[in-house]
Structures are given as C-alpha cells and as structure tokens.
Design goal:
By secondary structure, the protein is an alpha/beta fold. It is built from 11 helices and 8 strands. It has helices at 7-10, 14-28, 54-64, 77-82, 107-124, 141-162, 188-198, 209-215, 219-225, 252-262, 280-290, and strands at 39-42, 68-70, 86-91, 128-131, 165-169, 203-208, 230-235, 267-270. It is globular and about 55 Å long.
C-alpha cells in the first residue's frame, strides 16, 4: 500500500529508525508482512503519550503486520477497514468495573444494551463484545456468580443467533495500582464457572495473562484446559504491566508457541503500557515480533 503517514513522524525517534526501515520498504514494495500464526491486536494503552492520530496508528499497525484493534468506536470502523484491520473486541453492554453483571437492579438495562452491542458487533464483523462483572461491595462470590449466570443466560440466545461472543475479563484484586481491588471476577475459575453455568457456546472469558498470572498462576495449563471457554486474550508484562520482553517474569515467546499449539484462533491483544523512557513505536514493534511464531 502507499504510505500516507509522515515518514518524519514515524521515524522521529532515532532508536526506531533502523528497526522500522524493513517494514517501510516492504510496504512500499507491496511485499508480504511477517505476521505469524497469531492474530495480534492492540489496546490503546500501548501508545503511551506518542500523539499519533487513530489513522496514523492504524497505518503503523498495518505496516507491522497487526490484524486488529481492541475497542474501536463505531466512527473508527471505516478507518480500520482502510488499513486492513479488524475490530477485535468492542464494548457496549451497559456494564462497568463498578456496576456490572452481578447487579440485578440493572439487569433489564444490561440486556437491552447488550442486544444493541451484539447487533453492532455483528454489523461490524467483530467477534466479541466485552461485559464487566463488576464490584462485589460485600456480595459473596457465589451470589455474584448466580446473578451473572442469570443475566448472561438471558442474553445468550441472542448472542448465539447473531454469532457474537459475550465475554468477561478477569481483573486481579491484589495490585492496588490497578484500581480494581473489589472485583468479583478476580479468580479465573469464577469466570469459567459462570460460562459453564449458562450452558452457552457464546458466553466466554477474556483471558488476560497479566491478571491470571497474578491471581492464579499456571497460566498456560489453565488456558489449555479451558480453551473452549476463552475467546480473546490480553498480554502484558508481569509484575510491571509494561512490555512483554525479557524484563518480565513471563516468557511470552514460549507462551505464544503454546497458544498456537493449542489451536487457539481468536485475537491476542497487547495491553501493556510503555515503560518509563521507552519509545512506544519501538516497543510495539518489538513486542509484536515476540509473539510471531
């Protein structure tokens, strides 16, 4: 494809110039991009304070070989399409980290919003819609599980009809800096039990390696044993939630190979934050390459 992004902006940081040069040449010569067997996506956190517009971000991602973007807005879908990228995950269920699936007083609103969100995903070609279980605020996890199963069971038939996954993301309650210390879904097994409780093939878990490592550990075996219940993956370094390189405790090159060997077909999305003093462009390219297997 012809490059529209300013080369000056793309290569502004000297440390990134040599790394990006082969990708730029490949794009200019319409050569295949090395993507590997995993469909990689990004959350907005990876960009740090880099200042690129959404279209510029899409061009960079396309240049590197990414396949999608998490949580685009409806008005951004045409830009994704222009750069051969897919909406990997969307939001629109009427839930939040505070007010989630376990709140029976808003179940009617959640059902209405989620039906609309499912329609949005189906029209956009997005495979998964995210829903938040929410804060406990004194509620037992068992009661929360029953409430989540109840509302998701109401939603499941429509999700099945439209071919869209409705997924819940685990969030650890240990790291105060993550500001999510009262989440009901802070143990990966809770989410699996909710999915099984609905009996639906379209109620799934978003498997976040950062949170599962902190909350449960045994990240590869746990995913392998429950792969049928997982439709989307997030990755970030542990313990810092920064880049997924050798400065962290998880070996993401090994993890990527294991994910491929399991037969996983969904998106694997980068949700790390650039470390202090790191160049976001170089980090995005480097972390992409780590997951190319």
């Amino acid at each position: 494809m012809a490059l529209s992004l300013s080369r000056r902006k793309l290569l502004a940081a000297a440390s990134a110039t040599a790394f990006f040069a082969p990708y730029v040449r490949a794009a200019e010569q319409n050569q295949p991009i090395r993507q590997g067997r995993l469909r990689q996506s990004v959350m907005s956190s990876v960009w740090g304070n880099s200042g690129f517009s959404f279209e510029e971000r899409c061009e960079i991602l396309s240049l590197l070989g990414f396949a999608g973007v998490d949580l685009p807005g409806p008005n951004q879908l045409s830009i994704l399409q222009d750069y051969g990228l897919a909406p990997a995950l969307m939001t629109g269920t009427g839930t939040s980290f505070q007010e989630g699936l376990i709140r029976t007083n808003i179940h009617d609103q959640i059902e209405e919003a989620t039906r609309a969100g499912i329609d949005m995903c189906a029209a956009a070609g997005c495979p998964s819609l995210i829903a938040m279980p929410g804060e406990r605020r004194g509620m037992s996890r068992e009661e929360g599980k029953e409430h989540a199963i109840a509302i998701l069971s109401r939603i499941a038939p429509y999700a099945e009809e439209k071919g869209v996954n409705v997924c819940m993301e685990i969030t650890n309650s240990k790291v105060a800096a993550d500001n999510r210390t009262d989440q009901v879904f802070d143990d990966i097994n809770w989410g699996f039990e909710v999915c099984r409780g609905t009996g639906s093939s379209r109620i799934k878990v978003l498997y976040d390696f950062y949170h599962v490592q902190i909350a449960n550990g045994d990240v590869v075996r746990t995913l392998r044993d429950n792969l049928d219940l997982c439709c989307h993956i997030h990755v970030a370094g542990v313990p810092s939630r920064e880049e997924i390189d050798s400065g962290q405790e998880l070996n993401y090159r090994y993890i990527a190979q294991q994910i491929v060997d399991m037969g996983y077909e969904g998106f694997v999305s980068h949700e790390w934050r650039p470390g202090a003093g790191r160049n976001p462009l170089l980090s995005i390219a480097t972390c992409f390459d780590i997951l190319v297997v």
